[in-house]
């Protein structure tokens, strides 16, 4: 597993041992960032200079990819100890300590926001209804900017993670499905 693009392109990332953490594959991250950077609803402004939140961060691959591609900062949420060790090592290996903040705890009970984030990644354990719970908690604590781009990974066969919003994209990649929409539900 490695960073695909940007100023840290090629940097190897660690993953914790065992199967608890399920890192987003390199090819899936490549497809995701290509889509975001080239879509009419995205573009460079969707990433560059934006505060990012990587929820259920695991290795931090999504947030670190965004930082490598010019995001201003990233708040990483992770509670698994082995994943936290790998996450912190990956932030250091990418030399992104000055623009990263790790929250070692449950994203379903986040602290009050340090700033609003314009790009949100959620890659929770599959089939547990966690995206909606996390989004509700993050919204209540002020983490999500009004027009933030929200990207959620689910199992391929899971239902959409939210109702009553305009889905900007939905793509299956192997056993995973990526969904994207804007906070507030408009495209």
Features:
single chain, 187 residues, alpha/beta, Rossmann fold, seven-stranded mixed β-sheet, 4 helices, globular
Can you describe this structure?
With 187 residues, the chain is of the alpha/beta class. The chain has one domain (31-182): Vaccinia Virus protein VP39 (Rossmann fold, 3-Layer(aba) Sandwich). The chain has four helices and seven strands; from the N terminus they run H-E-H-E-H-E-E-H-E-E-E. The chain has helices spanning 26-38, 61-68, 81-93, 130-140, and strands at 51-55, 73-78, 100-104, 117-122, 144-155, 169-173, 176-182. It has a seven-stranded mixed beta sheet, sandwiched between helices. It holds the Pfam family Cons_hypoth95. Its EC number is 2.1.1.171.
Q: How do the strands and helices of this protein lay out in sequence?
A:
Elements: H1 26-38, E1 51-55, H2 61-68, E2 73-78, H3 81-93, E3 100-104, E4 117-122, H4 130-140, E5 144-155, E6 169-173, E7 176-182
Parallel strand pairs: 1-2, 1-4, 2-3, 4-5
Antiparallel strand pairs: 5-7, 6-7
Number of helical segments with 4 or more residues: 4
Quote the distance from N terminus to C terminus: 32 Å
How many beta-strand elements?
7
CATH class category name: Alpha Beta
Can you summarize the main beta sheet? 7 strands, mixed
| Large-scale geometry | globular
Q: Which residues form runs of ≥5 with pLDDT under 50?
A: none
Q: Write the CATH homologous superfamily.
A: Vaccinia Virus protein VP39
Strand order in space, largest sheet: 3-2-1-4-5-7-6
**Amount of helix:** 10-25%
Relative strand content: 15-25%
Mean pLDDT: 92
Total individual domains? 1
Order of helices and strands: HEHEHEEHEEE
EC number: 2.1.1.171
Pfam families: Cons_hypoth95 (PF03602)
Keywords: Methyltransferase, Transferase
InterPro entries: RNA_MeTrfase_RsmD, SAM-dependent_MTases_sf
